Amino acid sequence: MYKKPKTRKYFLDSGENDHWEEDHQNKVLQALENKVRELALNMEKMKLAEYVDLLDKPYKLIYVNFISGIARGLGIAIGFAILGAIIVLIMQRLVSLNLPVIGDFIADLVKIVQLQLGKK
Fold first, then answer.
1. Is residue 110 within 8 Å of 92, Cβ to Cβ?
2. Looking at the predicted structure, is the pLDDT value of residue 6 above 80?
3. Listed residue (82, 64, 84) closest to 72, CA to CA
4. Which of 24, 98, 105, 107 has the most CB within a 10 Å radius?
5. Would you tell me how many other CB atoms lie within 10 Å of the CB of residue 95?
6. What is the C-alpha to C-alpha distance for residues 92 and 87, in angstroms, rounded to an integer?
7. Is 0.70 surpassed by the pTM of this model?
8. pLDDT, tens digit, for every residue of 88-98?
9. Tens digit of pLDDT for each residue in 59-109?
């Protein structure tokens, strides 16, 4: 036998529908409020207000960038000097091992560096 499927009720009565819409609106507003709070916290973490304040003061922006450029350049110079000194020390150790091909080449390089530094 064929049974006719039951029809479902998709729309509520007018009184129930109003309650459902109000409940739905409250949920949407609550979700929106949570998203706004989350956005405000993320903006605080990014320090967006300080960045906008910095953009409003161009001389302060130039000063901050100038100081950071000096610090970056000084750091690069010191780092390169330390790295160069380490490489020269390693090369001096390799010369003392008396490797046939590499030893002569490194010895010449070490002599050139020492002449430039004034360490004869």
1. yes
2. no
3. 64
4. 107
5. 19
6. 9
7. no
8. 888 788 777 77
9. 999 999 999 999 999 999 999 999 999 988 887 887 777 777 777 777 788
Q: Is 106 exposed, middle or buried (0-12, 13-18, 19+ CB in 10 A)?
A: buried
- In this prediction, residue 101 carries a pLDDT of 73
What proportions of the chain, in percent to the nearest 5, are helix, strand and coil? 80, 0, 20
Tokens representing residue 13 in the block: 């009565």
pLDDT of residue 90: 87
Q: Is the Cα dihedral 66, 67, 70, 75 positive or negative? A: negative
Q: Which amino acid is at 23?
A: D
